[in-house]
Specification:
Layout lengths: L10 H15 L5 E2 L13 H10 L5 E4 L4 H12 L2 E2 L7 E4 L24 E5 L2 E3 L7 E6 L7 E6 L3 H10 L8 E5 L4 E5 L4 E6 L4
Parallel strand pairs: 2-3, 2-4, 4-5, 5-9
Antiparallel strand pairs: 1-10, 6-8, 7-8, 7-11, 9-10
Helix pairs in contact: 1-2
């Protein structure tokens, strides 16, 4: 597994970190990473890779679920120097498309004294869009950073995962933050401070 030579670990990482901060502070806003000449392994889309490159470092840990997880874990290690860890202690958890939340019960949700000591889920999806599309769920967000309501449409993410996140975040400030990435390099953040509902769009 080779280091991505076309990724600048200072300049690119800073740009992408700022983009993630903007997405996290403005839930419901769809941001987009610029296409880059990198080759992540199967099961890890480019937006998830770039999210990992921006957030991972030797001081934090990660866990990878799903198929091809060994290749993905090695790729993240080589390119970030972050270490893989058990899901019960990992800072970042990478989920592949359609993940049904199985096995996530042990993910960190913080403590009353240190609520920020929680995991962040980085979930792959097929498409994040401002318009309904085939197989999409309409997600409506409310809370800090949202002017009234924000509605976005996501396909390739499971109802089970969204239900899990809602349940984990019911006792805010405990909970987990969710970053959704898609095949088109879009990112969408749902912080644990925000409430959301979802419905099927009816688009086939």
């Amino acid at each position: 597994m080779q280091t991505e030579l076309n990724y600048d670990t200072v300049f690119d990482a800073q740009q992408h970190f700022r983009l993630l901060l903007d997405s996290m502070s403005r839930p419901g806003k769809i941001n987009t990473f610029t296409e880059m000449d990198i080759l992540p392994p199967d099961g890890l889309n480019q937006a998830a890779s770039l999210t990992g490159f921006a957030l991972l470092n030797p001081e934090v840990t990660y866990y990878v679920t799903g198929d091809n997880n060994d290749d993905i874990a090695t790729y993240l290690l080589v390119n970030t120097a972050s270490q893989e860890a058990d899901i019960s202690v990992a800072d970042y958890i990478f989920l592949q498309e359609g993940h049904n939340a199985n096995g996530l019960d042990n993910a960190r949700t913080g403590t009353p004294i240190y609520p920020e000591d929680s995991a962040t889920l980085i979930a792959a999806a097929i498409l994040i869009s401002e318009q309904p599309h085939k197989g999409s769920l309409a997600i409506i967000l409310k809370g800090p950073g949202v002017n009234g309501e924000a509605e976005v449409f996501v396909s390739g993410i499971s109802i089970e995962l969204l239900d899990f996140v809602k349940e984990q975040n019911a006792e805010y400030p405990l909970g987990t933050d969710l970053i959704i990435t898609d095949r088109q390099n879009h990112i969408l953040c749902i912080p644990r401070s925000n409430k959301f509902t979802y419905t099927h769009t009816g688009s086939n």
